[in-house]
Design brief:
The protein folds into two domains: 5-68 and 94-149, no CATH class; 154-249, no CATH class. α4 packs parallel to α7 and α7 (105-122) runs antiparallel to α8 (127-149). The protein has helices at 5-9, 12-16, 22-32, 36-56, 63-71, 94-100, 105-122, 127-149; strands at 154-159, 165-171, 176-182, 191-199, 202-209, 213-216, 226-233, 246-249. The protein is built from eight helices and eight strands, in the order ααααααααββββββββ. With 252 residues, it is α+β, with helices and mostly antiparallel strands. Strands 1-2-3-6 form a four-stranded antiparallel β-sheet, covered by helices on one side. It has a four-stranded antiparallel β-sheet with strand order 5-4-7-8, with no helix packed on it. Helix content is 39%, strand content 21%.
Amino acid sequence: MKHHATDAHTLAAAYALGALEDGERQAFEAHLHACEACRQEAAEFEATAARLAAAVAQPPPASAKAQVMAAIDGVRQLPPRVPATLAIAPAPSVGGVLRRRTVSLALAAAVAAAALGGIAAWQAQNGQALRAQARQAQQQLDTIGAVLAAPDARTVHGRAANGALTTVVASDRQNKAVFTAAHLPAAGPGKTYQLWLDQDGTMRPAGLIGQDGTVILTGNPAGARAVGLTLEPAGGSSQPTTAPLLLMSLLA
C-alpha cells in the first residue's frame, strides 16, 4: 500500500520515544535524511522526553543495594533465550503505526522506567501513602504520554526572561497541555512561579511550578492563544500580579 509523505511526518514522537519496531524505525530514519522538519521535531521530542524523565525520576533508598546483594544467592539464573530461527519480517505499514500511537506505551518506554523503577523496589515497605504516591505518578505519566503521542500534538519552545528554557506540548484532542522548565531560578521565599492560559485576552490560572520539571496545565488549552509564566506570592494568584516572564504563543 502506498502512503503519502505526510504519514511519515506524524511518526517523529514515536521515533524519539523508541516506540517504533525495527523495520518501522529503519524506514523512518531513511525519511529523516531527506526531511529537515522531521529531524528537528524528533530532536525536540527527545529533549522533552529526557526532561520529563529527569523531572519525575526518584532515586532508590540506600538499603536497596544491600537487599539486592543479599538476595542474589537465592535467585536462580535462567538460560539465555536463543531464537530457533531468524526470519526477516516484512516492514509493517505506517498506517498500523498510527493506530498504535494512541497507546501511551511510547512514553512508558522512555520515561516510566526512570520514574517508577525506584518506586517498585521499595513501595511494599513504605505503606499506603507511598502506594498512593506511585499511583499518582503513574496517572501523571499516562496523561503526559497521551499528550505527547496525540496525532495533533504541537510543541512550542521558549526562553523566559529569567533564562529558563521552556517547552509546551499541547493536544486539543486530549484537551491537555504539559509544561517543562529547565534552569529555572529559585522563586525565593514566599514566592512561586505560576502558569497561565491566555483565553481570549483573559489570563486564567493553569497551575504552579516551583522548580525544574514538568507539570500538567490545569484548564482547557483548546483555543488558548498563549501560555504565560509569572512570579507570584506562594499559593498563587487569581490573576497575574507581575509582568510575565514568558508568553509563548500556541496559535498554529
